[in-house]
Structure prediction request, 317 residues.
Amino acid sequence: MPRANRATTTASTPQARALAKDAEPQAEHRSPWRRLKSLPFWGVHAAALLVFVVPFAWKWVALCAGLYGLKMFAITGGYHRYFSHRSYRTSRPFQFLLALTGTLALQKGPLWWAAHHRHHHLSSDQEDDIHSPGLRGFWWAHVGWILSTDYDETETHRVPDLARFPELVWLNRYHVLPGIGLAVLLFLAGGMPALVWGFFVSSVLTWHGTFCINSLTHLFGRRRYRTSDDSRNSLLLALVTLGEGWHNNHHYYMASTRQGFFWWEIDITYYLLRGLAALGIVWELREPPKKVLESNLVTSAATPGPVDLDVATLEAP
Ligand SMILES: [Zn+2]
Ligand SMILES: [Zn+2]
Prediction:
């Protein structure tokens, strides 16, 4: 685990610490394997530049935006709020559909994602946090930890509630297949413009939109609630990520399906889930109790501390 430089950083704010850590040499992360592993990631970025070569049409932009919305919802409403936090319930077929759509975002499988995310909540901005920008720098929190070979394994012991579904375990193992299938389908349906806009550009945007939650929402924005980490709320990032920008709210009460706690905190994922609930596809969406909303405010002298449910004890569909 690359922690050798931590003690040398003395800056006081998370932003200053992130900048200082970015400036430090991180040679221990630069194994040859890491470089090889990074090739597909940077290859997709390079291929996205073909937007300047392929013929332009607004329909390709709409295709890109539509797939961005679908994949981002699958990550926020599926990988995050369902698989990681089990903040609502659904049927086993729709659970699989959420997982399958999530794999199209090319962020590995649902068990891998949920296990690492649960780890993040257990030790946010503490010594063991995998992607704390304050402890390891902005770049590491944003993308470095994903390209590192240190975190490739699925920590199944953190997701026993998910690992008992063989179809999810299978999808977790072969998580690249649906994404490759999507790329082939796009190429067959619309040629190079559909492939470039619908797959490469859309993938890059979905990646960095999601990664901003690990990096920027622990550095910039406002803190409403006292938590033991540096999580913050940001309207801009909430718009980009369909609601995940209310990260301080989320770290404070992560059992809630909604992350925008008040009507003015736009949370598109929650609105979509409410729509699915109205259709009977999902149910038991969790809300933060009024008492929780009003306690631990940064402006009060209340005792700090997040509130959570033990996800491993929740019932499966
Ligand atoms: Zn979370
Ligand atoms: Zn966080």
In short: The chain has one domain: 34-313. Residues 1-9, 308-317 have pLDDT under 50 and may be disordered. Residues 34-313 form one domain.
